[in-house]
Specification:
By secondary structure, this protein is an alpha+beta fold. It has one domain: 2,3-Dihydroxybiphenyl 1,2-Dioxygenase, domain 1, CATH 3.10.180.10. Helix content is 20%, strand content 36%. The protein is built from 3 helices and 9 strands, in the order E-H-E-E-E-E-H-E-H-E-E-E. It has helices spanning 15-25, 66-71, 87-96; strands spanning 5-11, 29-30, 34-36, 41-47, 52-58, 76-84, 108-109, 115-119, 128-133. Strands 1, 2, 3, 4, 5, 6, 7, 8 and 9 form a 9-stranded mixed β-sheet that branches. The radius of gyration is 15 Å and the shape is globular. The chain binds cobalt (II) ion. Residues 7, 9, 54, 79, 81, 130 line the site of cobalt (II) ion.
Length: 134
């Protein structure tokens, strides 16, 4: 069902300095920051030849990554994103298998303007999974 790895997301306390690290020290191509109030994050994408890294900084009062960063002040891997062809079919298959889809189960538009869903980390080896319809 899942296809390519679309990105690995890293939550960071300071997006500016994370961008500098990836651009100036690691020599990668880094996008401009995009504020996503509906998701409570500001995102930057680092383009790699075979995938992307999504750098996430908390945005707003009740950002979903605030608790994560409180436990890991230096930042850390927050989620991995796999592509699927049909996100509704994927969701229905996961629910039928007894795994949990976060939120109300309806896809929302993610950082690429494509529908995304998040899966409960306790059902997937302790890793938060994002599914994106490719
Ligand atoms: Co993501």
């Amino acid at each position: 069902m899942i296809g390519s790895l679309n990105h690995v997301a890293i939550a960071v306390p300071d997006l500016e300095s994370a961008c500098r690290l990836y651009r100036d020290i690691l020599g990668a191509v880094v996008s401009a920051p995009v504020a996503m109030p509906a998701h409570g994050v500001t995102t930057v994408f680092v383009d790699l030849p075979n995938t992307k890294i999504e750098l996430l900084q908390a945005l707003g009062e009740d950002s979903p990554i605030a608790g994560f960063l409180a436990r890991r002040p230096e930042g850390g891997i927050h989620h991995v994103c796999y592509e699927v062809d049909d996100i509704i079919a994927a969701r229905d298959r996961l629910l039928a298998a007894g795994t949990r889809v976060l939120g109300d189960g309806e896809p929302r538009l993610g950082a690429h303007g494509k529908p995304v869903l998040f899966l409960h980390p306790k059902d997937f080896c302790g890793t938060l999974i994002e599914l994106e319809q490719a």
